[in-house]
Specification:
Structural class: alpha/beta
CATH class: Alpha Beta
Number of strands: 8
CATH superfamily: Macrophage Migration Inhibitory Factor
Order of helices and strands: EHHEEEEHEEEH
Radius of gyration: 16 Å
Shape: elongated
CATH topology: Macrophage Migration Inhibitory Factor
């Protein structure tokens, strides 16, 4: 599940820049109860992009900005409670790792769904059903 994090340069501490992807990935898995699923752990990926404050706009003004975008298959984030848990966790992670003054109101979290059958991992185009089977198989292996 690709995670893209776009932040204003200097918004996070140096430690925060090193930690944010792993913490957001953990929050994504935890919100779905999949933190111990080997298949999912290996397929939550991401990158961090930083830009100058002069390139970050909120309300028409240059300000610090954090945008967290996650692309997932259609079987993810179906319940509002899961959506709320992840959005809140991601926002709090930015708040905990920030270097200075950055209000939560300038942290945005966005989740989009991939088309069923177009979720590609290692050259395999997974359907939602096949992806669910892979996750279930990894959960069963962990339970043994």
């Amino acid at each position: 599940m690709p995670i893209s994090i776009q932040i204003t340069r200097g918004l996070l501490t140096q430690h925060g820049e090193r930690q944010i992807l792993s913490r957001i990935a953990a929050a994504l898995l935890e919100s779905h109860g999949l933190e111990n699923n080997a298949f999912m752990k290996g397929n939550v990926i991401g990158h961090l992009v930083t830009s100058e404050e002069s390139s970050s706009y909120v309300g028409g003004e240059s300000q610090s900005l954090a945008v967290i975008e996650v692309k997932v298959p259609g079987v993810a984030f179906r319940e509002h409670s899961v959506q709320q848990k992840f959005v809140e966790a991601a926002t709090n992670i930015v708040d905990e790792l920030k270097a200075g003054d950055h209000p939560k109101s300038r942290t945005f979290v966005n989740v989009t769904h991939a088309v069923d059958g177009a979720w590609g991992i290692a050259g395999v185009a997974y359907t939602n059903e096949a992806l669910g089977a892979a996750v279930a198989a990894a959960s069963a292996a962990t339970a043994r």
